[in-house]
């Protein structure tokens, strides 16, 4: 059966470790593995703004020996001019894999159900699993291993990054804490699933409204924009709600002395993260951005082998 990567828990804990090991190997020797030689075409579609995702998929697919085909979602009129299912049936006849950044997780699921080829989530409103592979790869590089580490995610945990951290961190056997205001925890069903996974892996998942409790002795502090794509009309209200959760030098002082900082970018200095933290010595954000390429190559190769 065709495998997809629509959400973080589409991989088992062992498979996540396998993909991360493959990503590390691909980083060591970026041109060694050519599973998409032919070249196999990978269709990429971006319905929301993108920089890192488009750039890293394009370069990564080239390094795998494949061909990256940009499909303009607006020209195609996906879901308007023709249904997601029909688009999937057509693209599945032209491309070996499909990468899609879009709004609704249900649309991505429909693409996967009808394409007949592996589909990769390049961000939806609900999950950002490729980013999490890059985040975990980055953390493993700097900490040696992941199981048992404590991660604190501050701010808007109700977004795709919050949901994905709950699932992917649990899969890796980490202790994931969310420091988020009332009403901005990860999705309730996602939390239930993440806690089930954590039972299996020896990790844990918790939510607290107190940023200092979340950050205390943590090995990694993570944040994301307070205004995710699609939430622009709520900007002012969100800044007011999330201000106490900013990732500042002071908050970093509560974390482990060797704590590192992750941010998926784009970052808003002076809002969710202080410039001194983002641009400071604990920040791994540029490695994290680079690792998108290696991690995504690994998941494309993993799915292609199992198609
Ligand atoms: N939560 C952010 C992630 C950006 C990569 C958003 O959806 O806009």
TrEMBL record:
<feature type="binding site">
    <location>
        <begin position="128"/>
        <end position="131"/>
    </location>
    <ligand>
        <name>carbamoyl phosphate</name>
    </ligand>
</feature>
<dbReference type="InterPro" id="IPR024904">
    <property type="entry name" value="OTCase_ArgI"/>
</dbReference>
<dbReference type="InterPro" id="IPR006130">
    <property type="entry name" value="Asp/Orn_carbamoylTrfase"/>
</dbReference>
<feature type="binding site">
    <location>
        <begin position="264"/>
        <end position="265"/>
    </location>
    <ligand>
        <name>carbamoyl phosphate</name>
    </ligand>
</feature>
<dbReference type="InterPro" id="IPR006131">
    <property type="entry name" value="Asp_carbamoyltransf_Asp/Orn-bd"/>
</dbReference>
<comment type="similarity">
    <text>Belongs to the aspartate/ornithine carbamoyltransferase superfamily. OTCase family.</text>
</comment>
<protein>
    <recommendedName>
        <fullName>Ornithine carbamoyltransferase</fullName>
        <ecNumber>2.1.3.3</ecNumber>
    </recommendedName>
</protein>
<dbReference type="InterPro" id="IPR036901">
    <property type="entry name" value="Asp/Orn_carbamoylTrfase_sf"/>
</dbReference>
<keyword id="KW-0808">Transferase</keyword>
<feature type="binding site">
    <location>
        <position position="101"/>
    </location>
    <ligand>
        <name>carbamoyl phosphate</name>
    </ligand>
</feature>
<dbReference type="Pfam" id="PF02729">
    <property type="entry name" value="OTCace_N"/>
</dbReference>
<dbReference type="Pfam" id="PF00185">
    <property type="entry name" value="OTCace"/>
</dbReference>
<comment type="pathway">
    <text>Amino-acid biosynthesis; L-arginine biosynthesis; L-arginine from L-ornithine and carbamoyl phosphate: step 1/3.</text>
</comment>
<keyword id="KW-0963">Cytoplasm</keyword>
<feature type="binding site">
    <location>
        <position position="160"/>
    </location>
    <ligand>
        <name>L-ornithine</name>
    </ligand>
</feature>
<feature type="binding site">
    <location>
        <position position="224"/>
    </location>
    <ligand>
        <name>L-ornithine</name>
    </ligand>
</feature>
<feature type="binding site">
    <location>
        <position position="292"/>
    </location>
    <ligand>
        <name>carbamoyl phosphate</name>
    </ligand>
</feature>
<feature type="domain" description="Aspartate/ornithine carbamoyltransferase Asp/Orn-binding">
    <location>
        <begin position="148"/>
        <end position="303"/>
    </location>
</feature>
<dbReference type="InterPro" id="IPR006132">
    <property type="entry name" value="Asp/Orn_carbamoyltranf_P-bd"/>
</dbReference>
<feature type="binding site">
    <location>
        <begin position="228"/>
        <end position="229"/>
    </location>
    <ligand>
        <name>L-ornithine</name>
    </ligand>
</feature>
<feature type="domain" description="Aspartate/ornithine carbamoyltransferase carbamoyl-P binding">
    <location>
        <begin position="3"/>
        <end position="141"/>
    </location>
</feature>
<dbReference type="InterPro" id="IPR002292">
    <property type="entry name" value="Orn/put_carbamltrans"/>
</dbReference>
């Amino acid at each position: 059966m065709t495998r997809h990567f629509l959400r973080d828990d589409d991989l088992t804990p062992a498979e996540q470790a396998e993909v991360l090991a493959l990503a590390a190997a691909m980083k060591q020797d970026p041109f060694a593995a050519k599973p998409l030689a032919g070249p196999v075409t990978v269709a990429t579609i971006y319905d929301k703004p993108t920089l890192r995702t488009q750039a890293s998929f394009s370069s990564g697919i080239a390094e795998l020996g494949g061909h990256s085909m940009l499909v303009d979602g607006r020209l195609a009129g996906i879901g308007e001019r023709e249904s997601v299912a029909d688009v999937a049936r057509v693209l599945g006849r032209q491309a070996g894999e499909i990468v899609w950044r879009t709004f609704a997780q249900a649309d991505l699921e429909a693409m996967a159900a009808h394409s007949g080829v592996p589909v990769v989530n390049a961000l939806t409103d609900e999950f950002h699993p490729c980013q999490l592979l890059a985040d975990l790869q980055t953390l493993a590089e700097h900490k040696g291993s992941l199981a048992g580490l404590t991660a604190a995610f501050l701010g808007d945990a109700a977004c795709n990054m919050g949901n994905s951290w709950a699932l992917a961190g649990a899969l890796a056997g980490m202790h994931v804490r969310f420091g988020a205001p009332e009403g901005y925890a990860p999705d309730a069903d996602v939390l239930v699933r993440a806690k089930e996974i954590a039972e299996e892996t020896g990790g844990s998942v918790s939510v607290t409204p107190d940023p200092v409790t979340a950050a205390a002795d943590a090995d990694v502090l993570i944040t994301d924009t307070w205004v995710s794509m699609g939430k622009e009309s709520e900007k002012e209200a969100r800044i007011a709600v999330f201000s106490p959760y900013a990732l500042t030098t002071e908050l970093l002082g509560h974390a482990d002395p060797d704590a590192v900082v992750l941010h998926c970018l784009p970052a808003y200095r002076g809002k969710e993260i202080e410039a001194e933290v983002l641009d400071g010595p604990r920040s791994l954000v540029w490695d994290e951005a680079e690792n998108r390429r290696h991690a995504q190559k690994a998941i494309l190769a993993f799915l292609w082998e199992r198609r």
